Amino acid sequence: xxxxxxxxxxxxxxxxxxxxxxxxxxxxxxxxxxxxxxxxxxxxxxxxxxxxxxxxxxxxxxxxxxxxxxxxxxxxxxxxxxxxxxxxxxxxxxxxxxxxxxxxxxxxxxxxxxxxxxxxxxxxxxxxxxxxxxxxxxxxxxxxxxxxxxxxxxxxxxxxxxxxxxxxxxxxxxxxxxxxxxxxxxxxxxxxxxxxxxxxxxxxxxxxxxxxxxxxxxxxxxxxxxxxxxxxxxxxxxxxxxxxxxxxxxxxxxxx
Length: 256
Fold this sequence. Notes:
Layout: E1 21-25, E2 41-43, E3 48-57, H1 59-68, E4 71-73, H2 79-87, E5 102-115, E6 121-126, E7 141-142, E8 152-160, H3 163-167, E9 172-176, E10 182-189, E11 192-193, E12 199-200, E13 205-206, E14 215-220, E15 223-232, E16 241-243, E17 251-253
Parallel strand pairs: 5-10, 7-9
Antiparallel strand pairs: 1-15, 2-3, 3-10, 4-10, 5-6, 5-8, 8-9, 11-12, 13-14, 14-15, 16-17
């Protein structure tokens, strides 16, 4: 951060008193790895965060849950993004899945039935129109028996239990009755996260998640930029001390 060593150099304030900290303007934007709230996985390729919710919900309730966290049911823009999802170790409970080796969750596609004559025919659509770059899955496996009244089925992505298979990109697409309950995958834009794990809105000042509680940055497009650092002088009359990891210029003296 271009910090100065304040142990050997002090600023003199009014009356000759030594100031306890000094601010330094940082010319270049400061980048941090933490761009998602706790429990979310970050993918640089799409500047997005992903989270699997294991509390089983039907498709429409899952949509609302994702919207409440400023996201949507996940759709994918490229094979690389899908491979990222497959290689993650999601915190999944076995009891939420019928088979241990095959786990499925709702994603943001729907299968519209167009022909029921000899075989079931239809096409994929994105459930909620977003980026034009979203790709559509291949023909799915029909997960459940359909009633004659159903014209729309909802998409599930199969996530294999074995990492070696997932790293090879193996997966399947299923269609299910939208009112069945299932785990689901939410996707949201990357965001700024402060040192106390709070989400920060665009344009606000905050201290980023990390090991420096004396940074103050502006949240811009989900990243901390134009940061200013306060540098603290060591506490007077204390030989051994510990810095507070969450508050700037706060120390605990460890002397007897």
